[in-house]
């Protein structure tokens, strides 16, 4: 049994679920406690002990079905040998087990033959060689091992011929993958983004902690200290310090999803998704000509599904030309009123308005509500003045306009922003003091000229200065 | 030997209708002596499970409600400074006579420091929930509620307690649990719990129950509500959950509504009834409208037909 569990765990790991050795030991212990009665209960046992994240549960179910589907669970009371027999019979019947795949999505009305461009001749050869294994020559567990890894491909392979005779033949080609390729994320991309964001969060968290400590090093709270030490005869064993209120940084993101910036916006969306998983207060909107909020969807949907929904135009219509003016107007009408606190705004877009009305006064109003406004554009500065780009007009209302091209750029910019917000909130008084001090400093124009040279406007040649050459 | 079925039946008798996953998790936790981490949307009975278990198994419930800034002084143990000071005051005369024997100051200090451990003994230790459940004579049920509200530091603090069931107190050494408590942690998922903590627990996700189980839950709590109405109610609420509301109604809302309906002695689910009681189901202004609209759509049709 340990071997089965071990290979099952490695199958889980291949599918991106992190399982520690301790957890697999737990699984073995649990199975020993409850016995392997029935498929459902063993699935539950394994799930309870091996999966520690809600998002992993669907993957787990899939892997479980795929991994254990080779056994027909004939009857819980049956001997192991009988189960093995059933497995062998399954193997000998050519691809019979395909019919029993619980995840078999092959409904009668659907297409019968799925041609997959991914499958290459070698895979097919491997697939064929599957049937040539002689079960009598091998031990039970080895069959298990040999079967592993082929099932995924087997599922993609042409269906058993028996099906063709039942229904008229229809063929569906895989949708041309070139379009989808740019939109959905590969596992590596998602992991890389998680990595970038988690590192960013680590750095931020450290900074925040430092700031928090600084806050705690505030003045003595006399009343609280007296209250706290009342029972100690007023001997101040415990000191209570004043503490400044700390608020969570809020972020509002408006992201252009039109085709012209899709390469940048997809990373922005992935970043948002990951940020939201870190439980920052982020509200996300996407727009093309119309604007829609996707905060909930980002939180609840797998990111690839969401990207697909955006890409086919389910959320905002992508066939129209993007119009920043209209979007700002709609945003002001629908959302601006009920934004909590003073969030920081990030707008991602190329500011190409398609010669529509600019409505830049709305941006002014949004700026009033916002603590900070940042515009991210994927275009280089020299192209801003060309064509229908309104970057110069819109940029005037923003605190900062940044050119962002890669994931690293993006995460750096967002990190800086978050840090700014935090710093801003952490020490509002200090900041104010700083500004006051700056304002109080009288700018003495003479200073500039008199610096160093002692009133002499002409720089003096100092021979002693060169002595060390 | 308690089996899964027994767990299920026990929970049933105390009014908690458990499904197979819940029963298995409890069974495993009892035998493997591992904590259970329960996640799920608010109001599906995470805390309820702990309460039901404590009454069903007759384990005293020790509850620790987490909040931002909770620390070991609130969760594990604390020294009773006040009592320590009070004792030194009261024992002053004894101390005087005890110390008067010593010839000089040095010897007095030595004598006193020899008795130091008296003041850092269990007498002056305030047991906070975790330590209290560890030291309980009877096997107890430790509920660490809404762990996601606490800070990272606190989570790290829990690691030792949950994996080895022991508490290290610098002055006293390691205190091990007399009886390992059945530990339940709940989380609403407002913050990611670290993998280190997850690894030490069995993981149970409780989602919204299936139709039949939810009806059974309603029936168990309110037996006088007729079966048909309960079923209609639950069916309606399941449709409401699909509306994409800001706060979808959970099992606790179902039960509240059932109570309201049984107080009102409603026998039929009509749009009017829903409109009058909609505040029980929906908790946001925008949601209210959506629910009443759905009621008009769904229930008036069946009402007429």
Verbal overview:
The complex is a heterodimer of chains A (469) and B (305). By secondary structure, chain A is an alpha/beta fold. Chain A contains 22 helices and eight strands. In chain A, the strands form two sheets. A six-stranded mixed beta sheet of chain A has the order 5-4-3-6-7-8, sandwiched between helices. In chain A, strands 1-2 form a two-stranded parallel ribbon. In chain A, β3, α14 and β4 (281-287) form a beta-alpha-beta unit. Chain A is flat. The model of chain A is unreliable at 72-79, 92-117, 130-183, 443-463 and 465-469 (pLDDT under 50). Helices cover 55% and strands 12% of the residues of chain B. Chain B has 16 helices and nine strands. Chain B has helices at 4-13, 20-32, 46-57, 72-75, 81-90, 92-100, 105-114, 116-119, 129-135, 152-164, 195-199, 211-221, 227-241, 251-263, 271-281, 285-304; strands spanning 36-39, 61-65, 77-79, 125-127, 141-145, 166-169, 173-176, 182-187, 202-205. In chain B, the strands form three sheets. A five-stranded parallel beta sheet of chain B has the order 2-5-8-1-9, with helices on both faces. A two-stranded antiparallel sheet of chain B has the order 3-4. In chain B, α12 (211-221) packs across α14. The N and C termini of chain B lie far apart (54 Å). Classes of the chains: A alpha/beta (469), B alpha/beta (305). At the A-B interface, α2 and α3 of A face α2, α5, α11 and β9 of B.
């Amino acid at each position: 049994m340990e071997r089965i569990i071990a290979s099952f765990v490695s199958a889980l790991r291949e599918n991106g679920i992190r399982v520690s050795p301790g957890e697999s030991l737990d699984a073995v212990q649990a199975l020993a406690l409850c016995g392997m009665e029935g498929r459902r209960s063993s699935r539950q046992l394994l799930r309870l002990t091996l999966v520690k994240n809600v998002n992993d549960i669907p993957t787990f179910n899939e892997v479980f079905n795929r991994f254990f589907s080779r056994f027909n669970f004939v009857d819980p009371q049956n001997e192991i040998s009988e189960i093995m027999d059933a497995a062998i019979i399954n193997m000998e019947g050519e691809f019979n087990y395909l019919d029993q795949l619980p995840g078999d999505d092959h409904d009668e009305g659907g297409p019968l033959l799925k041609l997959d461009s991914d499958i290459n001749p070698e895979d097919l050869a491997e697939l064929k060689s599957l049937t040539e294994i002689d079960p009598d020559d091998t031990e039970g567990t080895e069959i298990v091992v040999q079967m592993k890894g082929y099932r995924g491909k087997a599922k993609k392979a042409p269906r058993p011929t028996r099906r063709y005779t039942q229904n008229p033949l229809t063929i569906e080609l895989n949708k041309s993958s070139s379009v989808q390729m740019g939109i959905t994320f590969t596992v590596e991309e998602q992991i890389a983004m998680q990595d970038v964001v988690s590192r960013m969060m680590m750095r931020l968290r450290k900074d925040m902690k430092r700031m928090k400590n600084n806050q705690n090093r505030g003045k003595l709270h006399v009343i609280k200290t007296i209250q706290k030490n009342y029972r100690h005869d007023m001997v101040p064993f415990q000191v209570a310090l004043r503490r400044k209120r700390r608020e969570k940084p809020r972020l509002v993101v408006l992201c252009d999803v039109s085709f012209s910036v899709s390469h940048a916006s997809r990373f922005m969306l992935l970043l948002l998704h990951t940020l939201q998983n870190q439980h920052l207060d982020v509200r996300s909107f996407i727009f093309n000509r119309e604007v829609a909020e996707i905060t909930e969807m980002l939180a609840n949907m797998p990111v690839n599904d969401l990207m697909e929904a955006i890409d086919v135009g389910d959320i905002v219509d992508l066939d129209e030309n993007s119009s920043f003016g209209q979007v700002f107007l709609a945003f002001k009408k629908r959302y601006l009123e009920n934004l909590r606190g003073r969030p920081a705004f990030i707008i991602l877009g190329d500011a190409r308005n398609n010669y529509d009305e600019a409505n830049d006064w709305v941006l002014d109003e949004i700026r009033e509500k916002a603590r900070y406004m940042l515009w991210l554009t994927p275009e280089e500065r020299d192209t801003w003045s060309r064509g229908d780009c309104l970057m110069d007009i819109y940029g005037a209302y923003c605190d900062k306009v940044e050119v962002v091209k890669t994931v690293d750029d993006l995460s750096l910019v967002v990190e800086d922003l978050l840090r700014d917000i935090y710093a801003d909130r952490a020490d509002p008084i200090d900041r104010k003091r700083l500004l006051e001090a700056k304002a109080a400093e009288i700018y003495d124009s003479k200073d500039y000229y008199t610096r160093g040279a002692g009133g002499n406007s002409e720089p003096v040649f100092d021979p002693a200065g060169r002595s060390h050459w | 030997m308690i089996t899964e079925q027994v767990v299920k039946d026990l929970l049933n008798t105390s009014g908690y209708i458990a499904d197979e996953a819940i029963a298995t998790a409890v069974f495993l936790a009892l035998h493997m002596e591992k904590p259970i981490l329960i996640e799920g949307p608010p109001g599906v009975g995470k805390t309820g499970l702990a309460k039901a278990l404590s009454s069903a198994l007759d384990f005293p419930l020790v509850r620790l409600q987490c909040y931002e800034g909770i620390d070991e002084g609130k969760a594990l143990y604390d020294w009773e400074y006040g009592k320590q000071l009070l004792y030194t005051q009261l024992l002053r005369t004894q101390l005087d006579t005890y110390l008067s024997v010593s010839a000089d100051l040095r010897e007095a200090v030595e004598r006193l420091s020899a008795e130091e451990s008296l003041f850092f003994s269990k007498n002056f230790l305030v047991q906070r929930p975790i330590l209290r459940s560890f030291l309980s004579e009877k096997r107890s049920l430790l509920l660490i509620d809404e762990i996601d509200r606490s800070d990272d530091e606190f989570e790290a603090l829990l690691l030792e307690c949950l994996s080895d069931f022991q508490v290290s107190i610098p002055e006293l050494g390691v205190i091990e649990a007399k009886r390992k408590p059945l530990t339940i942690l709940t989380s609403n998922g407002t913050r990611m719990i670290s993998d280190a903590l997850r690894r030490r627990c069995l993981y149970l996700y409780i989602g919204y129950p299936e139709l039949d189980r939810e009806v059974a839950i309603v029936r168990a709590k309110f037996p006088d509500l007729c079966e048909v109405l309960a079923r209609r109610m639950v069916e309606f609420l399941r449709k409401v959950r699909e509306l994409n509301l800001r706060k979808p109604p959970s099992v606790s809302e179902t039960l509240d509504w059932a109570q309201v309906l049984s107080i009102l002695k409603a026998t039929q689910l009509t749009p009017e009834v829903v409109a009058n009681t909609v505040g029980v189901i929906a908790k946001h202004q925008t949601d209210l409208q959506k629910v009443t609209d759905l009621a008009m759509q769904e229930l008036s049709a069946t009402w007429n037909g």
